[in-house]
Design a protein that fits this description.
heterodimer; A: alpha/beta; Aspartate Aminotransferase, domain 2; Aspartate Aminotransferase, domain 1; 3 domains; 7-stranded mixed β-sheet; 3-stranded antiparallel β-sheet; 15 helices; 12 strands; 35% helix; globular; disordered C terminus; B: alpha/beta; 2 domains; 4-stranded antiparallel β-sheet; 13 helices
């Protein structure tokens, strides 16, 4: 294993030297009261540039990534990240802009942001967008704040949100953070929202329904128009988590389905890199009725210029320090303009064909509950391997040995031993065939050598990690003079 | 260009394998009335054309590489070592996601562990998470966490905490049973007497920023003591570069310390993506929002890293999670880690002193202009507020500077209407002495 960067530290070594001082130097105590001065420096590593380059290059090589491996992580849309997006975002005219530079210096970026809002409106059928939320979950929070503000404006007291049991965990967490209580909606036998169950829970206290379409099983909510109409009859709103929008480009628009509020995950559908866990961007689209509730500031045309409009009494307020993850927005804009009308539609079409193809191939190996044509993803169950003392988690770990990142495991919660698989449009038929073959071999291994599968992975830099120890004896940071754990203390 | 490798011929074969005649059969669940024929968008662009489009839009902006901007006010431009860009561009860093499968993500996990350690060391705090969205949302999450940890409803936030952070707190807490109360400032810093009067045993947290939104250094030790006297948590929002010279939050017993960490290795990018740094004490570890990487062992006893204490998080705890955050700012945290490793403790101290020296040089020079003076007699780091004579038309001065390619200090009147003649000036190591001298020359002839 690669040691920690701290373990490479040699006192006095340097990796970067700041520019020389061209003004008269002073002692810090000339400007800062002594009791406010830092007494001891941080114990950061002291390393040379070559040490840093080697260390972080070697560490990078311990990762699976889209660039190196098939990454079928369901609901995360791990599609290829085109490099032209990086090139455009890195232009100094975008990356080296200060957020408070005057409008005369920022007409280009304001135009890009304004156009991006319009592009997202055209793609989704919503009337207006904010680009401010920094990720999907912050978009959810923003959308739910808009819902709450809407009911306040209508002088209605609504305190509950209906959320299907198949929903992503961020949905109930965002609802709770927004001050709502959550009522869980059981899925019907077909995996979709059961209209009768919905009606039974549609009381006068319901602020809205928060659904994902297609849902986390990869199924389109067939009754979406009826569902939306039911909610609207009760003067409640429909929030759609757009995490799965990669199924719908050029297929259908949430705005036409009766959706009132929608968040998109630009790092999913619009191919901005996931970066090992962000940054993302979670724009929120709304109907025209709700547009004045969107966060401020908003880009507005004033005369010949674009400016930020800061004022608005109805707005839910601000959710980001400035205007959102602009660097991500530039990448998504570049992607949308690259693919355009036909390219985006083809992306969804191929994503759907890829998912159905892989599902068909896997059906010979493992059951797929809710067996019907899926959209961009599907959920298989590993229930059958349990008889051999193996579970879905073990199968996922063994997939790593075959050079595939694992699908999303144990989600959605309504499928036992779930493997949630989303191949995306940027994988070839050959890769899908290889994945199906690998999973077939693993199922055979489960029968012939379950013990080996239970201890997978075997071909990675580490084998199965002890998560229980990690949680029981939290070791969340290295400390000077101490190896980070007991086991390796004598082994370095 | 759609980046989808399968050919139309392959897609036809695949449809056959699936057992359908056409793609449309796969959309049987989508009601016909909802199907759209085509997106109402322009046709796609070739790579060459989209690069040209991007370059044309970028050229309509004036970047910090072309203009000299004395702007900070929550976004600080600092140098980025070349190795940060070079390493972070590697696909193995750029294109994985949250390390759910630890064994196939040891690089990301070890980097997060190193990040957490370096942030803890810098702040002198016990625990740091793997990042939140930005500084402002980190301040808001600290308020949410304090309310839940103390079971108290009231948040006291100084009026000289960055207004955007205060606005995000207000948004996050709207609808909750919480009361946000602003503590006034006096002479550029939080009014401790007013803070003392506002405190009570229903206060969850006292939130201050160091240096504050006017650039002045706050009496953090005293404010923290006041908060602790009534059992409230003390939250510090700090500026990471300043910690090369200023005392860290751990030194004044902050319970939660947060920061906008983007200045460590990432460009301003018109305000985002940012990098929320979030730290706390051992006592509050299990209340922390967001991801945590921990060190553990594998079955052979080898050292390894994994996401841990996940029962706090939304994917396990759902509506009872400590936060709703899922995707954070991993790639910026990686860039910050590489930045911190390259710069090292000595580099950070030098950088901080450079900022200190240059800002004080600029302030002294600016105050030789007869119609400008320092607004408050308080120590500052690299940002300070100047007061212009009432007769001075600041808009025309700003326009004049702009014509010379200079963006003057930010007008605080946008945030504090009672200070119409106040401007907030920031000088980092990227501003040369020549630029400062040139600024003075223009201003001397401006009135």
């Amino acid at each position: 294993m690669e040691p920690l960067i701290f373990e490479r530290s040699i006192p006095g070594r340097r990796g970067y030297v700041p520019p020389p001082n061209d003004v008269p130097p002073s002692d810090p105590s000339a400007f800062i009261p002594p009791d406010q001065l830092r007494a001891t420096a941080a114990t950061w590593p002291e390393v040379a540039e070559v040490d840093v380059i080697r260390h972080y290059t070697r560490l990078s090589q311990l990762n699976y990534s889209i660039d190196t491996h098939f990454y079928p992580l369901g609901s995360c849309t791990m599609k290829h990240n085109p490099r032209v997006n990086e090139r455009v975002a890195a232009l100094p005219g975008f990356s080296w802009l200060h957020p408070l530079q005057p409008a005369a210096h920022t007409q280009g970026i304001l135009q890009l942001l304004h156009e991006l809002e319009q592009l997202l409106c055209a793609i989704t059928g919503m009337a207006a967008f904010t680009l401010q939320p920094a990720a999907g979950a912050q978009g959810e929070l923003t959308g739910l704040k808009i819902m709450a503000a809407y009911h306040r404006r209508q002088q209605r007291h609504r305190s509950t949100i209906l959320i299907p049991d198949s929903a992503h965990g961020t949905n109930p967490a965002s609802a709770a953070l927004s001050g709502f209580s959550v009522v869980q909606l059981p899925s019907g036998p077909d995996g979709l929202i059961d209209v009768r169950e919905l009606k039974a829970r549609l009381t006068g206290d319901v602020a809205g329904l928060m659904l994902t379409n297609p849902n986390t099983l990869g199924l389109f909510e067939r009754d979406i128009k009826t569902i939306a109409a039911l909610l609207h009859e009760q003067e409640a709103l429909v929030y759609m988590d757009g995490a799965n929008m990669n199924a719908l480009l050029g297929v259908a628009r949430p705005g036409d389905m009766g959706i009132d509020i929608l968040q998109l995950n630009l790092h999913k559908t619009f191919s901005t890199p996931h970066g090992g866990g962000g940054p993302g961007a979670g724009p929120v689209g709304v109907t025209s009725t709700l547009a004045d509730l969107l966060p401020l500031p908003r880009v507005r045309q004033r005369g010949k210029s674009l400016v930020w409009q800061e004022e608005g009494t109805a707005s839910v307020g601000r959710v980001h320090g400035f205007y959102g993850n602009v660097g991500v927005l530039v990448r998504a804009y570049t992607y949308i303009r690259s693919l355009g009308r036909d390219g985006l539609s083809r992306a969804s079409r191929v994503a759907i064909i890829n998912a159905n193809y892989l599902k068909t191939k896997l059906q010979e190996i493992c059951p797929v509950p809710y067996d019907r044509a899926c959209l961009h993803e599907f959920v298989a169950t590993m229930k059958a391997v349990r008889a051999h003392g193996v579970n879905a988690w073990d199968v996922a770990k063994r997939l790593l040995d075959y050079g595939c990142y694992a699908p999303t495991v144990y989600f959605p919660l309504i499928v036992e031993e779930a493997l949630m698989i989303e191949p995306t449009e940027t994988e070839s038929k050959e890769t899908l065939d290889q994945f199906a073959q690998a999973l077939g071999q693993i199922i055979a291994e489960v029968r012939s050598d379950p013990e080996m599968v239970r201890h997978a992975p075997h071909r990675l830099p580490v084998n199965r990690l002890d998560d229980v120890k990690a949680a029981r004896e939290p070791n969340l940071r290295w400390r000077p003079g101490r190896s980070p754990n007991w086991a390796t203390a004598g082994q370095r | 260009m759609d980046y989808a490798p399968n050919t139309e011929e392959q897609l036809q074969q695949m449809l056959q394998t699936i057992g359908v005649d056409s793609f449309d059969q796969l959309l049987a669940d989508v009601p016909a009335e909802l199907r759209i024929r085509a997106l109402d968008l322009l046709p796609g662009l070739s790579e060459a054309d989209v690069v040209q489009l991007g370059e044309q839009l970028a050229a309509k902006n004036v970047s910090l590489k072309q203009a000299t901007a004395f702007l900070g006010a929550g976004s600080y431009a600092h140098g980025i070592p070349t190795a940060v860009d070079s390493l972070a561009a590697r696909g193995e860093w750029l294109t994985p996601y949250t390390p759910y499968q630890a064994e196939a993500s040891q690089g990301t996990l070890q980097a997060i562990y190193e990040f957490q350690t370096m942030v803890c060391e810098l702040f002198q705090m016990d625990v740091a998470n793997a990042s939140l969205y930005d500084g402002a949302s980190s301040v808001a999450e600290s308020a949410v966490m304090a309310i839940r940890a103390t079971q108290r409803p009231r948040i006291l936030v100084s009026e000289v905490v960055h207004p955007h952070a205060r606005q995000v707190i207000a948004t996050y807490l709207s609808g909750a049973q919480a009361v946000i109360q602003e503590i006034p400032s006096v002479n550029g810093v939080t009014d401790l007497e007013a803070l003392g009067k506002a405190l009570g045993d229903d206060v969850a947290a006292v939130i201050l920023q160091q240096p504050n939104a006017c650039g002045c250094l706050e009496p953090m030790t005293q404010a923290g003591e006041l908060a602790h006297r009534v059992g409230a948590l003390f939250v510090a929002s700090v500026y990471p570069i300043s910690l090369g010279v200023l005392q860290p939050p751990g030194a004044y017993d902050a319970d939660i310390a947060v920061a906008e960490g983007r200045c460590f290795g990432s460009p301003p990018a018109y305000g985002g993506p940012g990098l929320g740094l979030f730290t706390t004490t051992n006592a509050l570890t299990r209340r922390i929002p967001g991801r945590l990487a921990g060190c553990t062992v594998d079955q052979s006893g080898r050292r390894g890293y994994t996401l841990t204490l996940q029962t706090r998080e939304q994917h396990i705890r759902r509506e009872r999670a400590t936060s709703n955050i899922c995707t954070n700012e991993g790639w910026l945290a990686l860039r910050a880690t590489i930045f911190m490793a390259l710069v090292g403790p000595r580099g950070l101290a030098e950088l901080a002193r450079l900022n200190l020296d240059k800002a004080h040089y600029a302030q002294e020079q600016l105050c030789t202009i007869p119609w400008l003076r320092l607004m408050w007699d308080q120590p500052f780091f690299n940002e300070f507020t100047l007061q212009a004579d009432p007769a001075i038309d600041l808009e025309s001065i700003q326009r004049r500077l702009l014509r010379a390619g200079v963006v003057g200090g930010y007008r605080l009147a946008h945030w504090y209407p009672l200070w119409p003649q106040a401007t907030l000036w920031c000088v980092t190591e990227l501003i040369s002495r020549d630029s400062i001298d040139r600024l003075i020359k223009i201003l001397k002839h401006a009135v």
